[in-house]
Amino acid sequence: MAVGSIFDTGTSAAPGQAKGTRAQTLRGDYAASLLVLTAAVMKADGRVMKSELDYVKRYFVTRFGNETANEAVVMLRDILKQEIPLRDVTHQLSQRLDYSYRLEMIHFLFGIASADGSVSDAENVVIQKISGYMSITDSDFQSIRAMFVSQSDASYKILEIEPTTSDDE
Q1: For the whole model, what pTM was predicted?
Q2: Which has fewest Cβ within 10 Å: 5, 28, 89, 91?
């Protein structure tokens, strides 16, 4: 049901909201999309950790409030049992969301992946697929990834500059 609501073009609203305005529809679609992509990342390494669920719940409480966050966690449990149509969901998102929101999603997904202390190779692959499907540039993907995956040149990747760049530049 949650996956299907993403493809509903008209009147869906976020859990706990009345149907109505376009802003509510976009907010509901964004929340449902986050849940679907969240499930894909959580399932990637074959285990769902409490730390990942806690991270998701905190994000939803901050973004949408307690009631919606609680409903989202229940929906997430159902979504985790389903096969995730990544290409379809992300294609829909790339058409409907501004680039900055898509970047925020990638950041959020890396936050989930790192909630247990490290980003696994499987989680990285899934997030990279999602990033590609949503037309995120490789430099933006690498910049966000560097915030969560330890690398000797992470600071340069975050800033999207070469290690040979001078301090003045």
Answers
A1: 0.73
A2: 91
Residue with tokens 């829909």: 92
Say if CB 23 and CB 12 are below 8 A apart: no
SS3 for 114-157, per residue? HCCCCCCHHHHHHHHHHHHHCCCCHHHHHHHHHCCCCCCCHHHH
- Nearest 5 degrees, angle CA 143-CA 147-CA 73? 110
Residues making up the chain, counted from first to last: 169
Beta strands in the chain (DSSP E): none
Tally of CB atoms within 10 A around 78: 13
Cα 114 versus chain centre, distance: 13
pLDDT digits over 57-116, tens only?
Answer: 999 899 888 998 899 899 999 999 999 889 988 888 888 888 998 999 999 999 999 998
SS3 assignment, position 14: coil
The closest of 12, 32, 16 to 67, measured between CA atoms, is 16
